What does this fold into?
Amino acid sequence: MLTEKMEKALNEQINEELYSSYLYLAMAAWFESENLPGCAAWMQAQAREENGHAMKFFKFINERRGRVTLKAIKEPAKEWKSPLAAFEASLKHEQHITGCIDKLMNLAIAEKDHASAGLLQWFVNEQVEEEANVDGIVQRFKMAEKAPGALLMMDHALGERK
It folds into this structure.
């Protein structure tokens, strides 16, 4: 069974993951409005992935005989200055989520909750991948800043994500 502290913290992470999904949907909507369907598709795939992360926590809490409690999801931004700015915001958000996962891991260790620590190790590894992926996109957008045609190539490449 989960301790009360761990259950509360895992429920807070569900909200963080659902907000992540919501944020990426907002980014997808903005990219669509900017006629960048590849970037929009990438963000939609990211939103689905984040929703899946929320469901991993949801299932885990239930398996541990805890109680899932959902809260309101805050409203995400609607506009970004540029595609680069949107992906920089995504990177900053992923770094925030990494911090959240690190705090959860620290709590699991303090609570001697090995099952939660096992789940969270998957998320620790996932966050390394998430940050690296978005950082790579940010770096490519920075390289392409002075080449307008590169934006279209980037958009096409990002649209290939499944």
